[in-house]
Specification:
174 residues, mainly beta, 4-stranded mixed beta sheet
Length: 174
């Protein structure tokens, strides 16, 4: 009886976002995959962990070397790394009392989620505070940007006043 080549496992596909945490490719090969094989191309870790921050998308092979006259066994994992959305809702800023600032992103084919739970492509701001927008791509990749809005100090006239040269006018509440 000759020893058999340990099984490499089942082929698999993986789709990640570029900002995702590392994932064990070995864990995708199924319960039949035997430890001790080699990854080609090499992964950053020897444990079959794919890190989208370091490795590139492509096909990775897990090879169990043949034993005796038995051939090697190979499983493949196709890895796709999707780009996350890149956008900005703007730099922190101030608006005047009674002013409105319209925030938005120019990204298409994405879903929008604002800090108040609304899902429109734009958001109207009239009060000071911190506002954020989270954008999700159809591939499930998400990014969030935050803006802080302040209210600029200054006089707010409630009525129009005409003053002629030489006239005196006293502002109330100042």
């Amino acid at each position: 009886v000759f020893p058999l080549t340990p099984p490499a496992g089942e082929d698999a596909d993986l789709s990640l976002c570029e900002f995702d945490n590392p994932v064990s490719l070995f864990g995708l090969l199924g319960d039949s995959a035997a430890e001790g094989g080699l990854w080609q191309p090499d992964l950053a870790s020897f444990e079959g962990v794919f890190d989208p921050h370091i490795q590139t998308a492509g096909t990775y092979f897990y090879v169990q070397l043949g034993v005796g006259d038995c051939p090697a066994d190979t499983a493949r994992v196709n890895v796709e790394v999707n780009a996350g959305p890149v956008f900005s809702v703007g730099a922190d800023t101030s608006i005047g009392p009674m002013e409105e600032l319209l925030l938005g992103s120019e990204l298409m084919d994405v879903s929008h989620l604002w800090s108040d739970g609304s899902t429109g492509t734009t958001f109207s701001v009239t009060q000071s505070g911190m506002y954020w927008l989270e954008v999700d791509t159809p591939e499930g990749c998400a990014s969030r940007d935050t803006i802080i809005i302040g209210i600029a100090e200054g006089a707010l006239l409630q009525e129009e006043v005409h003053i002629c040269e030489g006239d005196n006018y006293e502002f109330e509440g100042m």
